[in-house]
Design brief:
Keywords: Membrane, Transmembrane, Transmembrane helix. This protein has about 190 residues and is α+β, with helices and mostly antiparallel strands. It has one domain (about 50-190). The chain contains four helices and eight strands; from the N terminus they run ααββββββαββα. It has helices spanning about 10-30, 50-60, 140-155, 175-190; strands at about 65-70, 75-80, 90-100, 105-110, 120-125, 125-135, 155-160, 165-170. A four-stranded antiparallel beta sheet has the order 1-2-3-4. Strands 6-5-7-8 form a four-stranded antiparallel beta sheet, covered by helices on one side. The radius of gyration is 27 Å and the shape is elongated. The chain starts with 9 loop residues before the first helix and ends in a 5-residue tail after the last helix.
């Protein structure tokens, strides 16, 4: 009667151990790099706010803002306290909109005492730029802010052009610091680099 060879020979056991331990080591090593996973949810995370950033803004930064709770929209509006408030002159304020239910933050250009469309002219160091804007959705307001951000950082001179008439905006030092503060706070909420 011929003798049977064992199914799990010592060589096969060694090969299985090498394979199992290398596979476990690879899984463990890749688990440390979990931030780079694909976002297959189809959800737009552009306006997403983390709990830590929202709490920091509400507990530390919101003291500089006038707060308006809009229960109909489920949002809280934050307008900087040092903005220019006029009943006659056209003004353009940056408003941060926080939606705690969806954990989103939006920026809104609030136009008062004028009608859309508008143009914003910035002048800095002999360079003049004109930004046209006709209101829009969250993405349109966000894109306008991203276009204006370099001019805001350079402390450019801004003018609002409405119906062919030019009005200075964000001209006083307190308005400029308020504008920079709103931009900084908003991008910090979104965890985007300044």
């Amino acid at each position: 009667m011929p003798s049977r060879d064992p199914v799990l020979s010592p060589d096969l056991v060694r090969i299985l151990k090498i394979f199992i331990f290398s596979a476990l080591g690879l899984v463990l090593a890749l688990s440390f790099f979990n931030e780079r996973r694909a976002n297959n949810s189809g959800e737009d995370r552009t306006f997403r706010v983390t709990d830590a950033n929202r709490l920091y803004f509400q507990n530390v930064r919101s003291i500089y803002y006038d707060r308006e709770i809009r229960r109909d929209a489920g949002m809280t509006l934050f307008r900087h306290g040092k903005r220019l408030q006029s009943d006659i002159l056209p003004t353009l304020d940056l408003v941060i909109l926080l939606n705690p239910v969806n954990e989103n933050a939006f920026i809104y250009f609030e136009l008062k005492n004028a009608d859309w469309p508008i143009q914003i002219r910035s002048k800095s160091g002999g360079i003049e730029q004109v930004f046209e804007f006709a209101n829009g959705n969250n993405t349109d307001h966000f894109n306008l802010l991203r276009k204006l951000k370099p001019a805001i950082d350079q402390s450019s001179v801004f003018e609002l052009i409405v119906g062919g008439k030019t009005h200075p905006i964000w001209s006083e030092e307190k308005e400029k610091s308020a504008l920079k503060s709103v931009v900084e706070d908003y991008f910090r909420l979104l965890e985007q680099p300044n």
